[in-house]
Amino acid sequence: MVYGKFVVSGCFGAMLGLLAGPALAQQSSSGGGCGALPKWQALKTALTTAVSESGNGGLGNNMWGAIVDNSGIVCAVAFSGADYTQQWLGSRAIAAQKANTGNAFSLGPNTRGAGLALSSANLFSAVQPGGSLYGLQASNPVDTAVTYGNQLSVGPIDPPPANANTFGTTQDPLVGQRVGGINVFGGGLALYQGGKRVGGLGVSGDTSCTDHMIAWWTRHLLGFDVFSGIQGPASLFAGDASHPDNIIFDIKANPYGGTGISASGFGHATCLNNPTPEVLAALPAVR
User: Fold this and answer.
1) Is the overall model pTM greater than 0.85, yes or no?
2) What is the CATH number of domain 2-281?
3) pLDDT tens digits, one per residue of 180-225
């Protein structure tokens, strides 16, 4: 295997890979990190329960869920089906990307003022052509080698890519790594405890509006929606103080063509079998 200008044997490269994962996990666990966040079984149980909630809309698919710590290290990846083939395979990477987004663009209170929680759904309008954040989604590319456990192979004894049967388990190759990525549609939320941002949650596998609904339920079931006064676009611009980083459906047709106009600037497009306003209002309030 090749690292910079140095050539490392396949066996030694495999040993490096084995050592790197636990080292990152330990680093993540110190000072909070993954050690303070829900473990794999808790994520799987909450995600599976949330998928069964009525009123989520969408297609009724099984889902992927991912948790990152406050530095972006993946702590857990799970799915709601019986095995990894029962959810859209592409949604595994998107769930991790959404978790990274929720964590990367949310803040707790600091010396400059109150905290602001941004869900990935809140970014939809601002990244459209002409929007104030146009191009944001390309600013932090996903690391595909991390995502799929791929190895740089230069010889027959180099380790193969990760076995797909590990996807969504405690041995998922994403765990202990920073995957990066920015997602700009529903399903990504920050995790809060006592008003402090401690990580992010991402859910994917259905329409983006349904992804948001299931992520909201999952975060609530995990007990990581303790905001303590944290604001968000929905509380600041949509009159929804109980759900600060909720998805906002306020995009109106643009009379000049092109992308519709969001009254708040944080609106999200509607989806197939869109959640009704009554269902949105009935989501558990943040604590």
Assistant:
1) yes
2) 3.30.450.150
3) 999 999 999 999 999 999 999 999 999 999 999 999 999 999 999 9
